[in-house]
Amino acid sequence: MSDIDLDRLGDVWRAQPDPAEIERLRRSAEAVRRRARLGQVADFWLALLVSAVVLVLILSNPTIATGLVGGAAILVMLFSTVRARRLRMLELATLSGSTEHMLEQSIERVRATIRRARLNLLTTPLGLPLGIGLGAALDRGQGSGIYQRLTSEPLIAALVAIVLLVAMVTICTHLIRTRRVARQELEILIRLRQAYEAERTAL
Amino acid sequence: MGSATGTTDLPSFERIVGDYGPLISRIAMTYEADPNLREDLVQQIMLAVWQALPSFRAEASLKTFVAKIAQNRAISYVAREVRRPPTAEVSETLEADEPNPEETAIYANEREALVAATQRLPLPQRQVIFMVLEGFTYTEIAETLEIAPNALALRLSRAKTALKSAMERSR
Fold first, then answer.
1. B153 — contact with chain A (CB < 8 Å)?
2. Is the per-residue pLDDT at B97 higher than 50?
3. Average pLDDT for chain A
4. Nearest residue in chain B measured CA to CA from A184
5. What's the CATH class of domain B13-170?
6. Mean pLDDT (whole number) for B127-147
7. pTM score of the predicted model
8. Which of A72, B78, B109, B158 is most exposed by smallest CB count within 10 Å?
9. How far apart are CA A174 and CA B53, in angstroms?
10. Predicted confidence band at B46 (pLDDT cuts at 50, 70, 90)?
11. CA–CA separation, A117 vs A177, rounded Å?
């Protein structure tokens, strides 16, 4: 048994911070709250603005195609907003639970990130050329002339190819980095979980 | 101080910062040695507390509620900080936390050693020691960490031994 005096150390630990430190904390808290409220308001107004713009575009050109594209845009925005809110609520719920439960949830989240990054790494190099090929086929079928113009102008075609290649490399680099960071985070989380398990099994 | 009013009214964020700002600051100090990064952690903790405030129920102590969220946020922060080594110089730690004029040099040195020693403890033991140093009761600690009282007693015993040897190494 240790003879360390935690009561006395507690007094040392809780030494009254100076007023400047307290004032700095107050300012910091106020800034955090202001940013968070601004974020909430901005989310709402941005969603409203995007919906209004899409509606105006649909009404100015009321065809089935614009209706479908506009409807899909609003649905995607709604879906991402609801998903972001759900993730935030889930994270808050784990923060107010036990640490071990939070670690479990974090491990699951990071594993899902790694899985997604791996899947995207496989699909991006395949999906992008496939999408371009499909677009070209549709373009030829509809006869809008974009594909024809690109193939008849080698310089523009080369430029488009370079832009697409750079985009693909950037996306893949980002995915590789995401996966690497997530793996490192996973290692730390697993080590932390093991530390808690060791405490439990040491009983 | 520290408990909720018992009514359905939520405590104001200003009150939380006024009452528990130093506690949040000390939690950040326990998990982040670099003063610049610590400020970022303090802000992350405050944001989490602000967001979680509507879920606060008056049957729990407000201090326990804040400490739980702050510790969990700090631990998730540690896991995300994968880009750099976890330790910084102890002298850096206390630059942003200067002692009051009435604090003696010995007192300041002891605090410095205590902070450094706490930062070296394994996470489960660090949580327990932090809560004891903050003056939480054993019941509150057991509730916050969601462990049985006998498990807490054993963990605390090991944590005290680890803290003692870490403090000896810090001197």
1. no
2. no
3. 85
4. B82
5. mainly alpha
6. 93
7. 0.76
8. A72
9. 35
10. very high
11. 9
Of A9, A21, A26, Cβ closest to residue B114: A9
> Which chain B residue shows the shortest CA-CA distance from A201?
B151
The answer to whether residue B62 scores a pLDDT higher than 80 is: yes
SS (H, E, C) chain B: CCCCCCCCCCCCHHHHHHHHHHHHHHHHHHHCCCHHHHHHHHHHHHHHHHHHHHHCCCCCCHHHHHHHHHHHHHHHHHHHCCCCCCCCCHHHHHHCCCCCCCCCHHHHHHHHHHHHHHHHCCHHHHHHHHHHHCCCCHHHHHHHHCCCHHHHHHHHHHHHHHHHHHHHHHC
In angstroms, the Cα distances linking B49 to B68, B127, B128 are 10, 18, 21
Our CA-based measurement puts residue B147 at a distance from the nearest CA of chain A, in whole angstroms, of 9
Residue B41 has pLDDT above 60, yes or no: yes
A-chain CB neighbours of B18 within 8 Å are 26
A115, A76: one domain = no
Find the radius of gyration of the CA atoms of chain B.
16
Q: Are B30 and B125 in contact (CB under 8 A)?
A: no
B55/A contact by beta carbon, under 8 A: yes
| pLDDT at residue number A39 | 86
Q: The tokens of B71 are what?
A: 């510790």
Instruction: Reply yes or no on whether the pLDDT at A11 is more than 60.
Output: yes
Q: Residues, chain B, total?
A: 171
Q: Which of A18, A29, A17 is nearest to B15 (CA)?
A: A29
Q: What is the pLDDT of residue A2?
A: 52
Q: Tell me: do A2 and A20 sit in the same domain.
A: yes
Residues of chain B with C-beta less than 8 angstroms from the C-beta of A16:
22, 100
Q: Could you tell me the residue range of the domain that residue A10 belongs to?
A: 1-96
Domain boundary among A42, A74, A96: A96
Confidence of residue A143 (pLDDT cuts 50, 70, 90): low
Rounded Cα distance between A49 and A77, Å, is 11
User: What integer pLDDT is reported at residue A144 of this predicted model?
Assistant: 63
Percent of chain A with pLDDT over 70: 94
What is the total residue count of chain A? 203
Domains of chain A: total: 2
Interface test with A, best of B43, B51, B168, B171 (most A CBs within 10 A): B51
